[in-house]
Please model this.
Amino acid sequence: MSLSLLARTGHPEWTAAPARIVHLGLGGFFRAHAAWYTAHADDADDWGIVGFSGHSHDLVDRLAGQDGLYTLTTRGNDRDTIEVVPSVVEVHPGTDTAAWRSALASPEVTVVTLTVTEAAYAPGPSSVAARLVDGLVARRRADAGPVTLVPCDNIADNASTLADAIRTTAARLGGVDLGDRAHGEIGRGDVGLVEWIDSSVRVVGTVVDRITPRPTPADEAAAAALGYVDAAPVVTEPFSEWIISGTFAADRPDWESAGAQFVDDLAPYARRKLHLLNGAHSLLAYAGLLRGHTEVANALADDGLADALRAWWDEAAPVVGGADDAQAAYRRALMRRFANPRMHHALAQIAIDGATKLPVRVIPVARAELAAGRSADAAAMILGAWVTYVRREGANLVDARRDEVLAAAVGPLRDATHRLITLLAPDLADHDDFVGVAFDASESRASYP
Ligand code: CS2
Model:
């Protein structure tokens, strides 16, 4: 039976919820996270998601072929549970500008969520800000009313990052006759675009967390074995966290009823997640791959890496802050999550886009430690492992900043280490001892105690 049929069988009166959310980025994390919260909210029947891929047509085709439905397998340490998630009601490739503008121009739509990866926030013609402003211009022209943007990516203060990028892009594009520019049929008629955005668009901040490895062919087979013919399965962990802060411009789903938390100050949660989880992930990825490991669980079973991870957590503790017992509990929970051998979380997946991820996850800790007169050795060793990883990957490196990273990685190792740290944080490259520790770690092929 097709998945759609099974979904309808499970919900005899199943009908798609009305399209009231637009989402950009159809990857597994979104489908395990925001789409899952939306599907589990008490008012789920009132909130359908129109999803747009970053660029991929293949995933869109696969989801469209099953009405946007997909199976979500929650993989615990000892068993799986599987469900059909119905919240995605329409899908389009990110290249479908007409559909994007039409969706953003709908007065029914009051929320736009984003999972576009850290790299997509960098300024540029195909940045997430440029795509959003393009859609917001259409919304303004349609007089479709207020809308709230919800960035769901691992960036510290993602609300300000996105809001600033949107205003800068709108100021640059709005009111100026751009002729037939790619993004902008934004021209003289859009004078006052920034003022409209200021009055009609809100951006809220989030901290998002749910480990969601790339699905494997075995995952498709597992879903099929349970009777689900699913061309776009998602596998995730039991743990999930969505912390949101800010004011919505208009209506939104009752995400709290599905477990989302609304807080006044997001910063402590962001520091905890980005440094303790994501920073540790980057450590395990680069040092683990160099030591021949392929997945998080088996890298964690390597005592040298487990010790390095604890040293990183100890070094990050002052930046993360909060009560010692709360941080200790969070660390214990992370160890359990990382150690789940059934999750098959590929280190190579985590290693992608290091030049964008490390400045968020590791550099702030190094900067604070050096400012406090401490050595930041754990941070330096993560960067040293990254340097070695970059030089070993060479032309195979997957990084949005690939060309500049590879250009910096050439030549004698000490010089390359200094250039690569300069690429991430010029101020840290001035600390010779810090660069020296990174160089030593890189020279020793990231061998940990
Ligand atoms: C990972 C994250 O791939 C990566 O960079 O560190 O995707 C991580 O799995 C999520 O942030 C967990 O919430």
